[in-house]
Amino acid sequence: MSKRVLILAAAMAATALVSAAMPAFSADSGSVVATVAVTLPPAPCITLSTGAVDFGTQSFSDPAAASTPIVDASPAVHVTSCSTAVEKLSLSASDATTISGAWHISSTPPNNTCSLGPNVYEALYGPPGIKNFFYGNPTPVANQGTLAVGGATDLIFSLRMPCRGSAGAGETATMTFTTLAVLA
């Protein structure tokens, strides 16, 4: 019987060796995480070199003069595009306010602001050497054109003072020039 046990044990060992060498009937898996970065869509973006300009100390317009002088603000405003797309620039100007009253913006370009009565001033803008008039009422708006990606332009804001007898003698007048960028 011991021989029989030995043969049986040898047969079982051989079966076990053959079974271990055969492929397993189980499965295994792994996973990979994937990501994708999505760019932001182009958006309007400009930077201005300054947030304030100054016209200095000026006199009211003389009604007897042929024309009212144009006064430039200082410094020029350097407008730079920080957008990834071409932009259109629009500009607007507000009425001026003083402690004692307001000056309204002229809706027509006069030679002398006195021809429009008291409390009316003319607002202008443009790159150096060019004077463009703000058209429209109540908020005069003007198109400055397009600004290329990474492009820049200088703007100078100008005005013609209102006529003698207007509000604000001895005071400081404040107005706002706004630069708006939209995608072209």
Q: Termini separation (Å)?
A: 100 Å
The level of helicity is 10-25%
Number of strands: 11
Query: Pairing-aware structural class of the strands and helices?
Result: mainly beta
Explain this structure to me?
This protein has 184 residues and is mainly β. The chain has one domain (46-183). It is 11% helix and 30% strand. It has one helix and eleven strands; from the N terminus they run αβββββββββββ. It has one helix at residues 2-21; strands at 46-48, 70-72, 77-81, 87-93, 96-97, 102-105, 120-126, 132-133, 141-147, 152-160, 177-183. Strands 1, 2, 3, 5, 6, 7, 8 and 10 form an eight-stranded mixed beta sheet that branches. A three-stranded antiparallel beta sheet has the order 9-4-11, with no helix packed on it. Strand 5 and strand 6 form a beta hairpin. It is rod-shaped, with a radius of gyration of 39 Å.
Question: What attributes does this structure have?
Answer:
single chain; 184 residues; mainly beta; 1 helix; 11 strands; 30% strand
Secondary-structure blueprint of this entry?
Elements: H1 2-21, E1 46-48, E2 70-72, E3 77-81, E4 87-93, E5 96-97, E6 102-105, E7 120-126, E8 132-133, E9 141-147, E10 152-160, E11 177-183
Parallel strand pairs: 6-7
Antiparallel strand pairs: 1-3, 2-10, 3-10, 4-9, 4-11, 5-6, 7-8, 7-10
